[in-house]
Design brief:
Number of strands: 21
Strand content: 5-15%
Helix content: 40-55%
Number of helices: 31
Structural class: alpha/beta
CATH architecture of one domain: Up-down Bundle
Distance between the termini: 79 Å
C-alpha cells in the first residue's frame, strides 16, 4: 500500500477542495449566540429596565423632550456595553483559535502545522508520543508506535501498531494498521493517511458527548454576583423610602403627579445604587488580561486561571527545558577501557534511528563530530528493541552488523549497573566518576554492550541481559541566562520554586546552587518517595525543593502534598503522564513547544516558549490583573456613594423634586462616564512597583475586603460632601437657583471622577507617578479628554437647557475644579503618611 500513497501529501488546492466536500474535522459545529440575543440580554439588566421605565414616565408626564434624551442616553450606555461584549467575544475567540489542537501534516511536499479542525481525508499526518490522534487513518509508516485505545475499546493495555503493508487479513473490528480519533500515542512515531474525519470517525459514531459542560460560575463571579444582589436589595428598600419622602414633600401636587414624581425619585436612587458594572469589570479585565498574556507567549485556556495566577505560592517546574535551555550537548566521556571511539559507537547504536529526544540528538551529533555517521551506525539490521519505560529507566537495541550481533544499551547508571557483569574495582571507579560528573551539573548516562553468539541467545528483556559496562557519557544542558534573576524575583515575591526532575539528585542540586534556589541541598528521590506515606511527604515538602529521579506518577503526590499544606500550586508538565498532575494543580502549565497535546488539553495555561521567565512574568501579570479588578470594584463603590446619597438626602431635606441635584437624566449621564472609566482606564493600569515584593495574597480573601470598603466609603463621603455641600449652599432654598447649583454639583462629581482614577491607580505610588507611567497611553488621554469635553458640552452648549443646567462663570468653574481636587487628593496625604510610617 505504501507505494500507492503519495508521500508528498495533498496540495493546498486539493485540501481546500476536500474541506468544501467534507467540512471541518469537528464532532459538533459550534453554535454562535445571535447578536440580537446578546443585546436583549444586556437590555434585561435591572439598570436598563429602570432607565426605560424612567423614560416612559417622562413621556407620560408630557415631557417628551426629557424622555427622548433619556432614551438617547440609554442607547449610548447599551452601545458601550454591546461594544465591550463584542470586543470580549472577539478576544476570547482569538484565544480559542490560538489554543486549538494542532497537528503536523505533509502538504505540498513539506511538513506544516495546521489546526486539527482543518484535517481532510487524504492528508498525511505525523503523530508522535503525547499526541491525541485527531482523525481515523491508515498507518503508512511507523516506528515503535504504541497507542492507548481505552477511550474507544475499554481495554487498558496499549496497542502496538504496524505498517499497513505488513498487516494480515483479519476479522477483528479494531485494526492494528489503523489509528482512531480520540486515542493517545504513548510511544513512538508514525505517518498516518487520514481516512475519516469528524462525525464519520469511530469516536464520532459512538456519539461522544462533546457538548460543552454547563459553565459554572467562578468564585470571583459568585462574589461580584452577591455584591450586585446586596446592592439591589438595599436599592429596593431605599427606593420605597425615597418614594414615601418625596410623596410627603409635595402635598401641593395632584395625586397622579405626586405618585409619578415619587417613583422618579425612587428610580434615580435605585439606578445610583445598583453597581451593574461589576460583571462587566470581571469579564473585560479577565479576557483582556488573557489577551495581554497571549502576546507575552502565555496562552490562557481557562479564563478564571488569570485571577488564580496572582495567588500562586508554589511553582513546581521541570528542570529540562524550563530552567535549562533544552540544548543538550555531550560535555564529557569516560571509557572504562580507554576506548572512547567504541564507547561512542555503542552509544549511537543505542539511540533511535529517528531520534526526537534532545539527549539522543546530542549523542548522535557527538558521534557525527567523531566521524561516526548515521549511515555507518544504522547500516546493519535492527533485530530487536528493548523499549525505554519510566520504571526501567534504560533501553537497548539489538543489531546484526558486520556478521555479529550487538546489544547496545544505555540508561541511568543506577539501573544499567544492575544488569552489568562488573568487578567491584570497576564498579567503584564507575561510581566515583558518576559522582564527579554529577557534581559538575552533568546528566550522566551509562553505556553497556553484550555480544550474543546467535539469535537464540538474545535475552527477551533488558533485565535478563548480562552486559559489559563500557563507560559513562556526561551531558550538559546549561541553565537559561535569565533564570538566576527570575528565581531571585520569586524568592522576594514569596513564591517557592520547586524543581522536579528525572535526573540525578546531585546534578539537580548542582544546577539549583548555580541559579540560587533555596534549600538546594535538600533532595527527595523517587525511591524515597515510594517509601513515604502521604503524611510524611506533607511534612517533608515544607523545606525540600528538589525532587530527583521522579516519574510522572510521583508529580501528582507532590502537588497533593503542597495543596494539603494550604499552598496554591502552579505545575509545569509536557508528557501524557503529566496530565493528571496538571489537572490537579491550581494552575496547570503545559509546554507549548515540546508539550504533548494531552498535557496541553489538561492545562489551564500553555507556555508558548517553554521559558521560565515567561512563567514569572505571567504570575506578575496575574497579580496586576487582580489588583486592577480590586481597584475597579473599589472605584465603582466610591463613585456610586455621592450619587446614591444625593438621591437619598434631597427628599429627606424637603427639596422640591424639580430642584433635586440629580434627576434620572443626570444619573444616566454619570453612568456614561463610569462605565468606560472602570472598564477601560483601570484595566490598562501597569503593575505597581512593589507587586513582586509582596507575599502571595490569601485566595480566601474577599474581593472587597474591609480595608478597601472603608477606603471607598471614606472617599465616596468626601466627594458627596463636596458636591452636595456646594449644590446645597448655592441652592440656598431657592428653586430658581437649581440649574446653577445642579451644574456645580454635577461638575464636581465628574471632575472628582477623573482625579479619583489617578489617585486609586496605585495604593502606594502618588497620582503624579501614575500619570507619568501612563503618559504615552493614548486610550488614557482619550478617556480623560472625552470626559472634560463632555462636561464643557453639557455646560456651555444648548444641551445645558435640555439637561436643566446653567453655564458656570469662569470663577465658578475654577471653584468647582478646586473643590473636586480637594475632595479626592486628600488621599495623597494618607499615602505619604503610610510611606513615612513604613520607613
Amino acid at each position: 500500500m505504501t507505494n500507492k500513497v503519495n508521500m508528498a501529501g495533498l496540495t493546498a488546492a486539493q485540501a481546500k477542495r476536500l474541506q468544501e466536500q467534507y467540512g471541518k474535522n469537528e464532532l459538533t459545529s459550534q453554535k454562535k449566540e445571535s447578536f440580537f440575543k446578546k443585546v436583549l440580554h444586556i437590555i434585561c439588566e435591572p439598570m436598563f429596565l429602570l432607565l426605560i421605565v424612567a423614560a416612559i414616565i417622562y413621556f407620560i408626564l408630557g415631557e417628551p423632550r426629557d424622555g427622548a434624551i433619556m432614551l438617547i442616553f440609554v442607547i449610548g450606555i447599551i452601545s458601550i456595553d454591546v461594544i465591550q461584549e463584542w470586543k470580549t467575544d472577539k478576544t476570547l475567540n482569538a484565544l480559542k483559535d490560538l489554543s486549538a489542537p494542532h497537528v503536523t501534516v505533509i502538504r505540498d511536499g513539506k511538513e506544516q502545522t495546521i489546526a486539527s479542525a482543518d484535517l481532510v481525508p487524504g492528508d498525511l499526518m505525523m503523530i508522535y508520543e503525547g499526541v491525541k490522534i485527531p482523525a481515523d487513518g491508515v498507518v503508512v509508516k511507523c516506528s515503535d508506535l504504541c497507542v492507548d485505545e481505552s477511550s474507544l475499546t475499554g481495554e487498558a493495555e496499549g496497542v502496538w501498531k504496524i505498517n499497513t503493508e505488513n498487516a494480515e487479513e483479519t476479522s477483528d473490528y479494531w485494526r492494528k494498521d489503523y489509528c482512531y480519533a480520540g486515542t493517545l500515542v504513548t510511544q513512538g512515531t508514525a505517518t498516518v493517511l487520514v481516512d475519516k474525519i469528524g462525525g464519520a470517525t469511530e469516536y464520532g459514531k459512538i456519539g461522544a458527548n462533546v457538548a460543552a459542560a454547563p459553565d459554572e460560575a467562578t468564585p470571583l463571579q459568585k462574589q461580584t454576583g452577591s455584591l450586585v444582589k446586596l446592592c439591589a436589595g438595599i436599592a429596593a428598600v431605599l427606593f420605597a423610602l425615597v418614594g414615601v419622602f418625596t410623596y410627603i414633600n409635595i402635598p401641593d401636587h395632584i395625586f397622579g403627579d405626586r405618585i409619578i414624581e415619587s417613583i422618579l425619585s425612587g428610580i434615580t436612587l435605585a439606578m445610583a445604587m445598583i453597581p451593574e458594572e461589576f460583571p462587566v469589570i470581571l469579564t473585560v479585565f479577565l479576557s483582556m488580561g488573557a489577551w495581554r498574556l497571549a502576546k507575552k507567549s502565555s496562552l490562557v485556556r481557562k479564563l478564571p486561571s488569570v485571577e488564580t495566577l496572582g495567588a500562586v505560592s508554589v511553582l513546581c517546574v521541570d528542570k529540562t527545558g524550563t530552567i535549562t535551555m533544552n540544548q543538550m550537548t555531550v560535555q564529557d566521556t569516560f571509557a572504562i577501557n580507554g576506548d572512547t571511539h567504541s564507547l561512542c559507537e555503542i552509544m549511537g547504536l543505542g539511540c533511535e534511528t529517528d531520534a526526537y529526544d534532545p539527549m539522543e540528538k546530542a549523542m548522535l551529533a557527538h558521534c557525527d563530530s567523531l566521524g561516526i555517521t548515521k549511515e555507518h551506525l544504522f547500516g546493519g539490521e535492527l533485530i530487536n528493541e528493548y523499549a525505554f519505560t519510566n520504571e526501567l529507566k534504560m533501553m537497548g537495541h539489538v543489531w546484526q552488523r558486520n556478521g555479529e550481533i550487538v546489544i547496545a544499551a544505555k540508561g541511568s547508571p543506577e539501573r544499567i549497573l544492575t544488569v552489568c557483569d562488573i568487578t567491584e574495582k570497576d564498579k567503584a571507579i564507575a561510581e566515583q566518576k558518576i559522582t564527579e560528573m554529577s557534581k559538575e551539573g552533568l546528566r550522566v548516562i551509562a553505556v553497556a554492550a553484550q555480544k550474543p553468539q546467535n539469535q537464540t541467545q538474545i535475552p527477551s528483556s533488558i533485565t535478563e541481559c548480562s552486559l559489559t559496562l563500557l563507560g559513562l557519557i556526561g551531558l550538559a544542558d546549561p541553565p537559561r541566562e535569565s533564570v538566576k534573576a527570575d528565581i531571585a524575583v520569586c524568592n522576594k515575591a514569596g513564591i517557592r520554586v520547586v524543581m522536579i526532575t528525572g535526573d540525578n539528585g546531585i546534578t539537580a542540586s548542582s544546577i539549583a546552587k548555580k541559579i540560587g534556589m533555596p534549600n538546594s541541598d535538600h533532595i527527595i528521590t523517587g525511591d524515597m518517595l515510594n517509601e513515604m506515606t502521604d503524611e510524611e511527604l506533607r511534612e517533608k515538602v515544607k523545606d525540600v525543593s528538589i525532587f530527583s529521579r521522579v516519574i510522572p506518577e510521583h508529580k501528582m503526590r507532590i502537588v497533593k502534598a503542597f495543596k494539603e499544606n494550604g499552598e496554591i500550586v502552579a505545575m509545569t508538565g509536557d508528557g501524557v503522564n503529566d496530565a493528571p498532575a496538571l489537572k490537579y494543580a491550581d494552575i496547570g502549565i503545559a509546554m507549548g513547544k515540546r508539550g504533548s497535546e494531552v498535557s496541553r488539553e489538561a492545562a489551564d495555561l500553555i507556555l508558548m516558549d517553554d521559558n521560565f521567565t515567561t512563567i514569572v512574568e505571567t504570575v506578575k501579570d496575574g497579580r496586576r490583573i487582580y489588583d486592577n479588578i480590586r481597584k475597579a470594584v473599589g472605584y465603582v463603590f466610591t463613585i456610586h456613594i455621592p450619587i446614591a446619597l444625593a438621591s437619598l438626602l434631597a427628599p429627606i431635606l424637603g427639596i422640591a423634586p424639580t430642584a433635586l441635584l440629580l434627576l434620572p437624566l443626570h444619573v444616566v449621564l454619570l453612568e456614561l462616564i463610569i462605565d468606560p472609566t472602570c472598564s477601560i482606564v483601570l484595566e490598562r493600569q501597569p503593575a505597581e512597583t512593589d507587586i513582586m515584593d509582596r507575599s502571595p495574597r490569601n485566595p480566601k480573601e474577599k474581593l472587597l475586603n474591609t480595608k478597601i470598603l472603608c477606603k471607598s466609603i471614606l472617599q465616596g463621603l468626601m466627594i458627596f460632601a463636596a458636591s452636595f455641600g456646594t449644590y446645597f449652599t448655592v441652592l440656598a432654598g431657592n428653586a430658581d437657583n437649581a440649574p446653577v447649583a445642579r451644574a456645580m454639583g454635577l461638575a464636581i462629581i465628574m471632575l472628582s471622577n477623573l482625579f479619583l482614577v489617578q489617585v486609586n491607580s496605585s495604593d502606594h505610588d502618588f497620582a503624579v507617578q501614575s500619570i507619568i507611567r501612563l503618559a504615552k497611553d493614548k486610550v488614557m488621554w482619550a478617556v480623560n479628554i472625552f470626559t472634560v469635553l463632555g462636561l464643557l458640552a453639557i455646560l456651555y452648549t444648548p444641551l445645558a437647557t435640555f439637561l436643566k443646567l446653567a453655564p458656570l462663570s469662569l470663577g465658578q468653574f475654577f471653584a468647582v475644579l478646586g473643590i473636586a481636587a480637594a475632595a479626592v487628593l486628600w488621599y495623597e496625604i494618607v499615602k505619604l503618611v503610610k510611606k513615612l510610617c513604613r520607613r
